[in-house]
Amino acid sequence: MKSAISTIVNCKIHLNHSPLFRRSIFHPTKPISRPPPCLIRTTTSLTKNNSSFAPTIMASSFKPEHARAPPALPLPAPPLTKFKIGLCQLSVTADKERNIAHARKAIEEAVEKGAKLVLLPEIWNSPYSNDSFPVYAEDIDAGYEASPSTAMLSEVSRLLKITIVGGSIPERCGDRLYNTCCIFDADGKLKAKHRKIHLFDIDIPGKITFMESKTLTAGDTPTIVDTDVGRIGIGICYDIRFQELAMIYAARGAHLICYPGAFNMTTGPLHWELLQRARAADSQLYVATCSPARDEEGSYVAWGHSTLVGPFGEVLATTEHAEDLIIAEIDYSLIDLRRTNLPLSKQWRGDLYRLVDVQRLNSL
């Protein structure tokens, strides 16, 4: 009995010093939405001689199904479990026709080496500069004559029977410019188009200043697409810094997120691999990135280091800064394994936080 009384007294002392208790004193009109931990119902376990007392706090309901709105979709069965991906880290010049022909050759080489999915870099048909974006921009929706870059991607995907995540190119739509990624399936059809959501506007004095918003308009739609090699979420470069986008893709059942990107010599060494591994580990899926090769003479110098990361946050394949082609295997069975090892989806604290996918919520 003495032990039980002592427990209650200790609980009251804890309550008196808790933020919830102090708030109730200074703001008595504000209701406490949830009882403090010491008021959670407890069960007691007593020994035969009643000499010891072992209180056990009942587990609270984490409500993982409430942590995302709408609730997360189950991971769909992919069309194939294992396949090879090709990451084409390309040199980019001021010659647009050369860039298009060069990208085609790299895609063909990747397919010769067994790739079923090919990823290209960010802004692979144009120099990466605000001066170049309006000059090299293509009207993708107007058809192939107005967009020779996407015409090539459509043709080669159809001829080689592969899926292409076409990096990104400057897109003209009316009086606006976008940084846009096009995804083509094995019959050459444009499956989806992702416009970079988060524009690269940074200012690090003495290092780098770049404002994409001077010429480009931000996209406003997350992009996830079902392909012959699984469900893929798309982000472009700076999009990788915002984990909520990756979490939305995971909640929509993505197997893989592709980020064509061109990190620079200041943020690249610090953050490029870190962010890729973080997005993969957070969402427990594959992350693939592809950068332009480094051009020390260019107005914008890319970090390079195209990479494939697995669902445990492990680097599976990467390269240095020069032009290169990575061929690496993706095995989707590892996603289920890692989610069994670390059952994060069952541990989401739906009682404390929630991620809202506005687009899906509005479609219900």
UniProtKB/TrEMBL annotation:
<dbReference type="GO" id="GO:0050152">
    <property type="term" value="F:omega-amidase activity"/>
</dbReference>
<dbReference type="GO" id="GO:0006107">
    <property type="term" value="P:oxaloacetate metabolic process"/>
</dbReference>
<dbReference type="GO" id="GO:0006528">
    <property type="term" value="P:asparagine metabolic process"/>
</dbReference>
<dbReference type="Pfam" id="PF00795">
    <property type="entry name" value="CN_hydrolase"/>
</dbReference>
<dbReference type="InterPro" id="IPR036526">
    <property type="entry name" value="C-N_Hydrolase_sf"/>
</dbReference>
<dbReference type="InterPro" id="IPR045254">
    <property type="entry name" value="Nit1/2_C-N_Hydrolase"/>
</dbReference>
<feature type="domain" description="CN hydrolase">
    <location>
        <begin position="83"/>
        <end position="332"/>
    </location>
</feature>
<dbReference type="GO" id="GO:0006541">
    <property type="term" value="P:glutamine metabolic process"/>
</dbReference>
<dbReference type="InterPro" id="IPR003010">
    <property type="entry name" value="C-N_Hydrolase"/>
</dbReference>
<protein>
    <recommendedName>
        <fullName>CN hydrolase domain-containing protein</fullName>
    </recommendedName>
</protein>
<dbReference type="GO" id="GO:0005739">
    <property type="term" value="C:mitochondrion"/>
</dbReference>
<keyword id="KW-0378">Hydrolase</keyword>
